[in-house]
Design brief:
Blueprint (H helix, E strand, L loop, with lengths): L3 H7 L4 H12 L3 H13 L3 H25 L6 H9 L3 H31 L8 H22 L7 H20 L15 H10 L9 H4 L7 H30 L2 H6 L4 H46 L10 E2 L2 E2 H16 L2 H26 L3 H29 L1 H25 L13
Length: 440
């Protein structure tokens, strides 16, 4: 007898669909936002920096794939961390940090939207006030979409992803023939520490693969589909990012990259496709970042609601305002404030640091749960060590290059720790706290 659930699973998401979710999550607004940041930091070694970031993401994806098969849930990272370690001060802080990461990515996409939009406006619109106004619009418009119909842009996401990939492919194909290989030669590379630091600075460009885990309940034949989807999506995006980085660094001089780091991809397109190429990439960036803000607001709202029901956020976050979780409005406000207050490079570093911390915890969960298999369990340990080591490199870099990011990170994490202590102390015996013994 075939049950309704069996029928749904048999008609669920396959390898291609799950892979598309992962690619769409990664190739969102991130590559448009952080490419110039990476190029300024790593110079001719920018493709290597993206490769290093991809390796760390690939190690972590192994843990996500095994946990998704063993513990399928729309909760993704939160379900894995709470399911293995239980709900407590440390896990609550990590989950709250994940939500802060969504605030930072909202800010990253909004800031990128503002910079790309401003380049398409007349020169008289080049002031800082205009940029801040565009940033507000970048968050306010998707916020209103979520109030009206949260799935409006989601239904068109497949088309948006296809447009982004097509335009990026055009830029790579058009620019490949004009690449100056001397700009990519090892002799032009900075030191190894600088390259790794740059890789971690833009690690946020890879974080979207975790969306596959959120869709695990709807996947057909999870043991077959999920590992392949994670592997394919990461591999495809690594190749794409390395090629794009090579074209940009090989097409632009270091001086031009420094001057146009907030819209470097559009500037690279202009070298081979002229002003039409600049506007094409600029338009794609605007579309990509808007859809990314929309998806991030939607996900952050649901995440905050889940954390509240688990007793890891104040009970008021379980309530709705204007028919949406309160977390939607808090994320929109917080993301806007971060985008207006911090430069793009600092936001990128802030988001990357938070996701490296959360991914280290997910790798640790895969290791402790003992579901990673004979050879995958050592990979989980390697992934955890890699994320923590990468976080350390990023923090050391911040001490000398970006203290604004470091101070912002310390403040946000301190608030998360203090808030979780206060919240869990009062809700520890409440009905919302559901501690699982899995993995203990």
């Amino acid at each position: 007898m075939t049950t309704r659930h069996d029928s749904q699973v048999s008609n669920g998401v396959g390898v291609l669909g799950a892979t598309a979710i992962g690619i769409g999550g990664m190739v969102g607004g991130g590559i448009f936002a952080v490419l110039g940041v990476a190029a300024v930091a790593a110079g001719g070694a920018t493709p290597v920096a993206f490769l290093i970031g991809g390796v760390i993401a690939a190690l972590t994806a192994v843990s996500y794939s095994r946990l998704s098969v063993a513990m399928p849930s729309a909760g993704g990272s939160v379900s894995f961390i709470d399911g293995v370690f239980g709900v407590g001060q440390v896990t609550g802080t990590l989950n709250a940090a994940l939500w802060v990461g969504y605030l930072a990515t909202t800010a990253l996409y909004a800031s990128a939207f503002g910079h790309y939009s401003q380049t398409l406006l007349p020169g008289s619109w080049s002031g800082g006030g205009v940029l801040r106004l565009l940033i507000v619009v970048a968050v306010a418009a998707p916020w209103l979409v979520n109030l009206a119909d949260a799935s409006l842009i989601a239904r068109a996401e497949g088309v948006i992803v296809a447009i982004k990939l097509l335009i990026l492919a055009v830029v790579v194909a058009a620019g490949a023939g004009s690449v100056d290989t001397s700009g990519l030669a090892p002799s032009s590379w900075p030191g190894a520490g600088t390259i790794v630091g740059a890789a971690m600075l833009i690690f946020v460009a890879y974080e979207g693969f975790e969306l596959i885990a959120n869709a695990s309940e709807d996947v057909r034949n999870p043991a077959h589909t999920l590992p392949r989807a994670f592997a394919l999506s990461i591999a495809i995006v690594i190749v794409l990012y390395v090629l794009i980085a090579g074209v940009v660094v090989g097409s632009l001089t270091p001086e031009v990259i420094s001057q146009s780091q907030d819209f470097a991809l559009a500037e690279a397109a202009a070298t081979t496709l002229g002003q039409a190429g600049f506007r094409l990439v600029g338009g794609a960036a605007i579309l990509a970042t808007l859809s990314a803000v929309n998806a991030t607001l939607y996900g952050a709202a649901r995440l905050s609601f889940t954390l509240a029901t688990e007793g890891e956020l104040p009970e008021r976050f379980e309530h709705l305002r204007w028919n949406q979780p309160i977390g939607l409005h808090v994320t929109a406000i917080g993301g806007t404030l971060i985008a207006v207050a911090l430069p793009l490079s600092s936001i990128s570093g802030l988001a990357s640091a938070i996701f490296l911390l959360v991914f280290a915890a997910v790798n640790a969960a895969a290791y402790r749960a003992q579901i990673a298999g004979r050879w995958r369990r050592p990979l989980a340990a390697t992934g955890a060590a890699g994320c923590l080591g990468s976080l350390g490199v990023l923090l050391v870099r911040a001490v000398t290059h970006d203290r604004t990011m470091l101070v912002s990170l310390v403040i946000l994490l301190t608030v998360a720790v203090a808030a979780e202590h206060r919240i869990l102390r009062h809700r520890r015996t409440g009905p919302h706290l559901r501690v699982t013994s899995a993995g203990r």
